[in-house]
TrEMBL record:
Protein name (database record): FAD-dependent urate hydroxylase HpyO/Asp monooxygenase CreE-like FAD/NAD(P)-binding domain-containing protein
SUPFAM superfamilies: FAD/NAD(P)-binding domain (SSF51905)
Record PANTHER family: BLR0577 PROTEIN
FAD-dependent urate hydroxylase HpyO/Asp monooxygenase CreE-like FAD/NAD(P)-binding domain ranges (all copies): 6-168
Protein species of origin: Cryptosporangium arvum DSM 44712
Alphabetical list of InterPro entries matching this protein: FAD/NAD-bd_sf (IPR036188), HpyO/CreE_NAD-binding (IPR038732), L-asp_N-monooxygenase_NS-form (IPR052189)
Length: 605
């Protein structure tokens, strides 16, 4: 009897799961298997990476740092089936002007992801059949002989096992966003809540209009591209030539500065051995909990970042150090991060202060800074951005790349902490999902350097104006208002754009299927010591948990919106990346559930 698996979602995360299912199926499941993907968007690329978006929007990772195939570095139970990274595929496919260090358009990435899905699909053994339904799943429920997935087209699919691989989710405005949206409605203003930038309708933002923008991350970079080049402006000779269709963008955030640019060089020395201070041994040694992220986990993470940074400094630039590496490494290993011993060691071994890693200064570069006036803010921010771009393109500072590699290793280890230890609810929401995720993105997930050069040109042309750090946004006297405690004065506008994705929030999700799960008690928000994390509760095998605490044996959920938190769908090669490990674990759990199921006799009803 044929076993039937329905996967809701067909983007990169679902493709990664499919790759692991096909790799592991021969050793786990003997019966024939039909896998049905349900997604209104193209399989492989999904919504975020679909081809029909502006060709001006780029990936923020270099092509050589993007792969969908686990390699020999990945620690998985299922067999490996290596494949090409993005730049290797592009070379084979004849895509023009794609090199390893290229930042390709999202339409090129869409082509890669579509090809990966097709290749994986074609590699399926004879007893595994794969089909795609271009439809939207709106409800899932238990049926007499398995589960029933209801589609927007009013069709129904029977399944033995269902996997929800929904990717990025939209959300209805809540909290401050809901308050600002209501204020905009009451006063005839324009408010754009958090959302995926490529899907925004920006037509309400008129030429020459003053627009407040909250956020200086990747969503802001996309927003600026669409409002400038996307409206006919062009960059020439280091400057910007306006089209006259641009609004005037006034942007601020907590840090007040954009994400750091991607590095434009390679390591000078050998790669740092990672993990070293934040691996399985150190995680096992943590107390069983409940833990606080900043108090208990961050000191290990900070030490790992320092290890990657100083390994490259000593290996690549020994003339700027005063101790042999082996001596420094031994003393560094013995010293706690928050200790005088570590501070004294670095001071004695690294003579130049500018060569010492200062994570607090990196995190909040304008702490305790005040500006005399608006002009001083613009000069300070341009100087900061110019220095960042210069540093990220100067191999003399390759220690920053060592820190970046350590950050990637840390990101891959964090799922072990969540699986093996317990963080308090407050710490999960405020410190892990809040501060840490923002800090990681700020240092490691920034745009290519030329995007910051373009931002500088827009600033000099008067199209973009920086508001400073710790900016507060509110509605006052019928207008939106922004102000920074570090800058005199206020800025008013009749439009406000949230340049960020919505936080995970199952209670306020716009996804009809998840809303139904919550309404019927088949799913529940994760709550840790009375604090809701906003995520769909799943167990360590990715099974959905209902409002009575019962784990559904044949219903799974994967992604950032779940309590398992998921990871990016694709990863940097040769880094034992978490997405592959998580997909392998999930695939084997799904195959085991299929093996134990009764099996379905029909396809539709």
């Amino acid at each position: 009897m044929t076993k039937r698996l329905v996967v809701v979602g067909a983007g990169p995360g679902a493709t990664g799961l499919l790759e692991r299912l096909i790799a592991s199926a021969p050793g786990v499941l003997e019966e024939p298997l039909l896998i049905t993907f349900v997604d209104p968007h193209p399989p492989g690329a999904g919504r975020v990476w679909r081809a029909d978006q502006s060709p001006l929007l780029l990936m923020n990772s270099m092509a050589e740092d993007v792969t969908m195939f686990p390699d020999e570095s990945v620690q998985v139970e299922g067999p490996l089936a290596p494949g090409p990274a993005l730049h290797e595929w592009a070379g084979e496919a004849g895509a023009p002007d794609v090199e390893g260090r290229s930042f390709v358009s999202r339409t090129v990435q869409s082509g890669y992801l579509t090809w990966v899905f097709d290749r994986v699909r074609a590699s399926a053994p004879a007893n595994v059949r794969i089909e795609v339904r271009r439809d939207r799943a709106i409800r899932v429920e238990d049926g007499p002989s398995g589960q029933i997935v209801h589609l927007a087209s009013r069709q129904r699919l029977e399944a033995d096992v269902v996997v929800l691989a929904l990717g990025h989710l939209d959300a209805r405005p809540t909290g401050e966003s809901a308050r600002l949206a209501a204020y905009a409605d009451a006063h005839g203003l324009t408010y754009v809540p958090p959302a995926y930038t490529a899907d925004l309708d920006l037509s309400a933002l008129k030429p020459g209009q003053d627009v407040l923008v909250r956020g200086l991350g990747l969503a802001f970079v996309d927003l600026v591209v669409l409002l400038t080049e996307g409206r006919g402006g062009r960059f020439e000779n280091g400057g910007y030539v306006p089209s006259g269709h641009e609004p005037r963008i006034h942007v601020g955030s907590g840090r007040g500065v954009p994400y750091h640019a991607k590095t434009g060089y390679r390591l000078v020395g050998p790669p740092p051995p990672l993990p070293r201070h934040f691996g399985q041994e150190q995680i096992d040694a943590l107390p069983d909990g409940p833990l606080e992220f900043r108090r208990d986990v961050w000191p290990l993470i900070a030490k790992e970042i320092g290890w990657g940074y100083y390994h490259e400094l000593f290996a690549g630039h020994p003339e700027r150090t005063a101790l042999p590496w082996d001596d420094f490494a031994a003393a560094y290993t013995d010293a706690a991060w928050y200790s005088a011993a570590r501070v004294d060691l670095v001071a004695s071994a690294v003579p130049a202060e500018e060569d010492r890693l200062d994570l607090d200064r990196l995190d909040r570069p304008f702490t305790n800074t005040t500006f005399a006036d608006d002009d001083a803010v613009q000069v300070a921010l341009r100087t900061y951005i110019e220095a960042d771009v210069a540093r990220r393109n100067d191999a003399a500072h390759s220690a920053d790349l060592g820190a970046f590699l350590a950050l990637l290793s840390i990101y891959g280890q964090l799922p072990r902490v969540l699986a093996q230890k317990q963080l308090t609810g407050r710490s999960q929401v405020e410190e892990l999902d809040g501060w840490w995720h923002g800090f990681f993105s700020f240092l490691a997930s920034g745009p290519p350097g030329f995007r910051l050069d373009q931002l500088l040109a827009l600033s000099r042309a008067g199209v973009v104006r920086f508001l400073g750090p710790d900016v507060r946004f509110d509605g006052v006297d019928g207008q939106f208002r922004a102000c920074s405690p570090a800058v005199p004065g206020e800025t008013e506008a009749d439009a406000l754009v949230e340049a960020r994705l919505p936080r995970p929030t199952i209670a306020a999700t716009a996804d009809e299927l998840l809303r139904d799960l919550l309404a019927t008690g088949q799913g529940v928000e994760e709550v840790v010591d009375t604090v809701s994390t906003g995520r769909l509760r799943t167990n360590r095998s990715y099974q959905v948990v209902d409002d009575h605490g019962r784990e559904h044996p044949r219903r799974f959920a994967l992604g950032w919106y779940t309590s398992s938190r998921g990871a990016a769908a694709f990863a940097r090669p040769r880094t034992n990346a978490a997405p592959f490990r998580m997909a392998d674990h999930a695939a084997r759990a799904v195959l085991s559930a299929l093996r134990e199921s009764v099996g379905s006799a029909t396809d539709e009803c």
